[in-house]
Amino acid sequence: MKVLRQHANQIFQAGIAAANPYEAVKKHFVLNENFSKIHVIAFGKAACAMANAAQELIPENLLGKAIAVTNYENVTQVKNVDVLGASHPLPDLAGFEAAKRIAQIAKNAKADELVLVLISGGGSALVPFPVDSITLEEKIATTNLLLSCGATINEINYVRKHLSQLKGGQLAKLCAPASCQALILSDVLGDDLSVIASGVTVADETTFAQAITVLKNKNIWELVPKAVQNHLEKADFETPKSLENVENTLIGSNLMSVEAAVKMAQSLDYQVIRHDYPLCGEAREVAEEFVLTAKNTPLENTKIAFITGGETTVTLRGNGKGGRNQEMALAFALAAQKHGLSGKWTFLSGGTDGIDGVNPAAGGCVDNGTLERMKNTGANPAQLLENNDSYAALKCSNDLLLTGATGTNVADLQILLI
Question: Containing domain of residue 275, as a range?
Answer without folding.
Answer: 2-14+255-417
